[in-house]
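Entry for the shared binder. Reason: the reviewer on the internal report wants the predicted structure included alongside the sequence.
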Amino acid sequence: MRYKVVLEYDGHNFSGWQRQKHSSNSIQQILESAIKNFLGEEITTHCGGRTDVGVHALGQVVHFDLQKGHKLYVVRNAINYHLRPLPICVLSVETTNDEFHARFSAKRRHYLYRIVNRYAPLTIDHNRAWQVCQKLDVNKMNKAAKYLIGKHDFSSFRAKDCQAKNPIKTVDNIEVLQDGYNINIAISARSFLHNQVRIITGTLVECGRGRLLPEEISNILRKCKRSAASTTAPPYGLYLVRIDY
């Protein structure tokens, strides 16, 4: 029986989603351990978006196979019981067919990057948003974002150790929204390169600071090298919001 679950987690104190050889602190390992404690089965989980160290999820999608069928509320509640007191929880569970794959069946992924644009230190949002003290011009950030929408070679916006064979990606939408001190960058695409959202965010922030003109984004794309773009935004402001299938 194949199960599809939606997870929420605070990624700050974990080593990212993916299982690590020299660490037992990944979301994947912890989830698989909770399932084993519940059922006694050794299983492998597959996720829709491999979040990095410190990145959060509001709607991570995972699938796994179990030998026997169980009531959905039992699966949800039992896994959550074995995840306590860690900041990871199963929001929902459903059964699906064997053709479904959390990663390869995904049609679009939606991320949110949270910025708090103020000088006073963060308290509630500490490790959950990026504090930028210098005032940001959201209009300039939105103008810059428009150059990134569509199909492009995003070589300038991927980590140097990115293992993707093809740097060409299609960004469906980027929107920069401000509500008082809070600035949210919403970005959607079928798939992303390693650190693509965080490098885009860091570059848009430089436009908001006035250190980079929005029109220069086109030149950064054309250069196709990581050094052309700006700094990589810290992981703790990034959230995987949902995945469409």
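Summary line for the report: The chain has five helices and ten strands.
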